[in-house]
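Help needed: design a sequence for this.
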């Protein structure tokens, strides 16, 4: 069963922020996705780089696809 949970990484250990229905010693696979804070920084950086662009990039892309 796949399930998404939030966790906090402290001192080299991922600590779930909610109860998990797992047996002691059970192996699991983890997929690590950083929180929105990292995404926010990327958006800010891209916004600064393209501040002077006056065209709507989506509109330009859609027009060129035709």
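Sure. Designed sequence:
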């Amino acid at each position: 069963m796949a399930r998404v949970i939030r966790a906090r990484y402290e001192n080299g250990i991922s600590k779930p922020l909610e109860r998990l229905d797992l047996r002691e010693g059970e192996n699991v696979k983890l997929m690590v996705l950083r929180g929105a804070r990292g995404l926010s920084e990327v958006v800010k950086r891209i916004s600064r780089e393209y501040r002077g662009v006056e065209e709507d990039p989506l509109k330009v892309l859609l027009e060129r696809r035709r």
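Strands lie at 7-10, 13-16.
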